[in-house]
Amino acid sequence: MSDDKKVLVTGQGFQPILLYAHTVVTDSALRFSPGDWVRSTLLVELKNDYLFETNNSVYILLGAGSRKTAAPDVVTSIF
Q1: How far is Cα 77 from Cα 79, in angstroms, rounded to an integer?
Q2: Does residue 36 carry a pLDDT above 90?
């Protein structure tokens, strides 16, 4: 993400980070079934290293996980 876009994103209260999970365990809003994958919208706040909050949802992170860097077009092509 370019520096200009990072400034725009952070100025709107987001961090240029999103979550991709291979396996949903449970979804209290019933949007996803167990075993589905999910890609979030941009991060608003990460609390206690395991509560990933977006504008629409709070994800509870389970397991070791990993961080990756990818170009925005690569990230949005995940489906």
Answers
A1: 6
A2: yes
Per-residue pLDDT band at 74 (split at 50, 70, 90): confident
**Confidence (pTM):** 0.84
Q: How far apart are CA 72 and CA 50, in angstroms?
A: 23
Q: Which two tokens stand for residue 29?
A: 């809003």
Q: Where are the alpha helices (H) located in the chain, listed in sequence order?
A: 3-11, 72-76
Give 43's DSSP letter.
B
Per-chain mean pLDDT for the chain: 92
Token pair for residue 71? 């170009």
- 46 forms bridges with which residues in the sheet? 52
The answer to whether 37 and 24 are in contact (CB under 8 A) is yes
Rounded Cα distance, 1 and 17, in Å? 10
52 CB-contact burial (10 Å; exposed 0-12 / middle 13-18 / buried 19+)? buried
